[in-house]
UniProtKB/TrEMBL annotation:
The keyword Repeat is annotated on this UniProt entry: yes
Source organism of the structure: Symbiodinium necroappetens
Repeat is among the record's keywords: yes
Record InterPro entries: Ankyrin_rpt, Ankyrin_rpt-contain_sf
Entry protein name: Ank1 protein
Keywords of this entry: ANK repeat, Repeat
UniProt repeat feature ANK, residue ranges: 51-83, 84-116, 117-149, 150-182, 216-248
Length: 278
């Protein structure tokens, strides 16, 4: 690289894909010596490729801490947006690179930024179960319950996908355990549908509404029973979830358990004396 740069040429010349040397050699692969040479030759640290991506996004996505630091020190903006309005902090959050995320936050990355779909860095951390990144963002006082275009929050993502560590952090930070989506879904119902026992436990400890109804008037107990999640059903029954409620089809949790074809789930009801569908 050094020999090539001694000859007259443009250090920002793109290749056939529109990527510069900074994006290809330095940022994506972490070749910091080459990166320093390119920056000394006045390569543009913020130049975008054909997809609107900068070298800093490539470095953040690949967890290149040293490369990220060099680019920031060279004047790269911490908040460039790609065609989907995502920034380097989003790339770090999605991949779980907490040290890169920490450096970006210290460099005044916009932690409240949202994409076209309403996604946030905290939402990406929750989706991926990256608790270290989520903790950093919460310590930065990021909004806890941002709502995306579908009306879903980071806690909803974590509950639906069984990301217990992130759910725990969000609940301790004051996330709304009963926030409902436009479609009538809420964290406890989503956790029960996925059979995520640890998250269900966390939500119940946070006083989530035990017998709240979702789509078709189904309760968390009905959903867990129909899916055959023995441990989740057992926990809900221990918490005195209603066994007499019915959905719009007239189906109770007991009948849902029978439909699961899981004898062990049905037995949880029969032991408590519930044998007939109301």
């Amino acid at each position: 690289v050094e020999a090539l740069l001694q000859m007259p040429q443009d250090p920002d010349a793109p290749d056939g894909d529109g990527d510069t040397a900074l994006q290809n050699l330095a940022a994506a692969f972490g070749c910091n010596e080459s990166l320093e040479l390119l920056l000394e030759a006045r390569a543009d640290a913020s130049q975008t490729n054909g997809h609107g991506l900068t070298p800093l996004v490539a470095a953040a996505a690949n967890g290149r801490l040293g490369t990220t630091r060099l680019l920031l020190e060279a004047g790269a903006s911490p908040n460039p947006e790609d065609k989907d309005w995502e920034t380097p902090l989003f790339a770090a959050a999605r991949s779980g690179h907490w040290e890169v995320a920490e450096l970006l936050l210290c460099s005044k990355a916009d932690y409240e930024h949202t994409t076209k779909s309403g996604m946030t860095a905290l939402g990406l951390a929750a989706l991926g179960g990256h608790s270290d990144v989520a903790r950093l963002l919460l310590e930065a006082r990021v909004e806890i319950d941002p709502v995306d275009a579908a009306g879903e929050t980071p806690l909803f993502y974590a509950s639906r996908d069984g990301q217990g560590d992130v759910a725990c952090l969000l609940l301790k930070a004051g996330a709304d355990a009963d926030r409902e989506t436009p479609g009538g879904q809420f964290p406890l119902l989503a956790a029960c549908e996925g059979g995520h026992l640890d998250v269900v436990h966390l939500l119940l400890e946070a006083k989530s509404m035990l017998d709240r109804t979702g789509p078709d008037l189904k309760t968390p107990l009905m959903v867990a029973s129909r899916c055959g999640y023995t441990e989740v059903v057992s926990l809900l029954l221990e918490q005195r979830a209603s066994t007499s409620a019915t959905d719009i089809f007239g189906e109770s949790a007991y009948l849902a358990a029978c439909r699961s074809q899981k004898p062990e789930v049905v037995q949880l009801f029969t032991r408590t004396g519930i044998r007939d569908d109301p």
